[in-house]
Amino acid sequence: MLAGYLRGQMVPPDALLELWAAHQQGRLRSALPSLTMSLPDSRVGLLPGTRSHGQARGLVGLWEPLLAALKALEGTGQDVIVDVGRLGLAGSPTPLLYGADLALVVCRADLVSLSSLRSWLATLHTELEEVGGATSLGVVLIGPGRPYSEVEVGKVLAPVCGGRSPILASVAWDPKAASAFSAGAQVRRLESSKLVRSLQNLDEAARKRIASNTNDLSEVRA
């Protein structure tokens, strides 16, 4: 499974540090494929993140050129998903967040999580609006109904998101299926689990939002 594979010898050591060195030598784009590991039984490539929080601070100058390199992959038909981690951390790759076609904040549906989310969304919406990317911001709700529904959460968050609900989609609360991805657990009928079905719905919703934003941008330019 994935967890065991990542613990093996196929993971490039300190891949981002090597990418930073390649950038300084003017060969970031050519080095990117060699530092990306292939995941078994898929067409997915993975670029591992930093091994420690201390490394992130030294990579601040990498994010802008990396964003340009990742956007160039669109010409080859490749999609890129970036996990920027928790918001507000020192060395966080915020340029990747602000330059994304779709910036999604993942949050649980409980009071503590939503209280923090509301504050962050207000900041993100304002900053993205300044660069014309407010419509790229969305929320993925983990475990709707635990205890708040999508509708309830959307009403609470709408005032800080220009009056519209930012909820793009929800991911099912399915710890057993999730353990297959987080810990490499063997899960029977994983493909038909609530979690995987909800992830498929998320993928469809994300593609529709990106297409809609792209069409709107084209109309504005025209």
How much helicity do the residues have? 40-55%
Element-by-element helix/strand order? HHHEEHHHEHEHEHH
The number of distinct β-strands equals 5
Query: If strands are numbered along the chain, what order do they take across the biggest sheet?
Result: 3-4-5
Strand content: 5-15%
Radius of gyration, taken over Cα atoms and rounded to an integer in Å: 18 Å
Low-confidence segments, ≥5 residues, pLDDT <50? 1-11
Domain tally: 2
The largest pleated sheet is described as: 3 strands, parallel
> Mean pLDDT, as a whole number?
89
Counted by DSSP, the helix tally is 10
Cα separation of the termini:
48 Å
Return the structural class.
mainly alpha
- The quaternary structure here is single chain
Q: What would the principal axes of the Cα set say about the shape?
A: globular
Structural account:
The strands form two sheets. The chain has a three-stranded parallel beta sheet with strand order 3-4-5. Strands 1-2 form a two-stranded antiparallel ribbon. With about 220 residues, it is mainly alpha-helical. Residues about 1-10 have low confidence and may be disordered. The longest helix has 28 residues, at about 195-220. The protein folds into two domains: about 1-85, no CATH class; about 100-220, no CATH class. It is globular and about 50 Å long. It is built from ten helices and five strands, in the order αααββαααβαβαβαα. The chain starts with a helix and ends with a helix.
